Structures are given as structure tokens and as C-alpha cells.
Amino acid sequence: MQISLRTEDRRAILRLTGRFEFSMHRDFREAVDTALQNRDVEAVVIDLAGVEYLDSSALGMLLMLRDRANAAKKSLSLANPRGMVKQALEIARFDKLFSIA
After folding, report:
1. What is the domain extent for residue 44?
2. What is the pTM of this model?
């Protein structure tokens, strides 16, 4: 998986591509830390359009991010989930925990 981070309109947008799995834990955490530590950022958006697969550890990473974003007083949303990824988020009832667009 690859992670790119850009900031626009006081939002940090993390675009993920490929397979979102445990092996990406360190890279994901580093990108999250960068986004959350930016004082100009009010919201974090995880763009899942390019994610073809996610496992249970990826769901855990998203939950960890949710807790950290709340602690940093930043909003968090998931964007553009498709196919299997969207289905996994629905089954896990993430729509009750996250804003998903």
C-alpha cells in the first residue's frame, strides 16, 4: 500500500492505495502523526478510493485514528470506499462511528 498526504482548506487528506493491511501499520501511523500534529489542520480525511482490500488490523488502525483525532479535537471522515472495502465497513458498522462519504 502507498500513502500520500496533502493539506488543503485546513484538511489533511491521506490517500491510500493498494492493500490496507497490518504491514502498513508503521507508515499509516507516521502519516497520521504528521496530519494530527499540524496545527493548521482541523479535519482529517482518509481517502479509500484506491484501496482494494483491508483486513481486520486496518479496521483497528482506523479506530485508533478515530481516538487520536478526537483527543486532538480534529474531525475525521472516511471517503470513497468502494466494493469490498465499502462492504467491510458496512459489516463492521463503521457508519455508526465515522462520517463516510
Report:
1. 2-100
2. 0.93
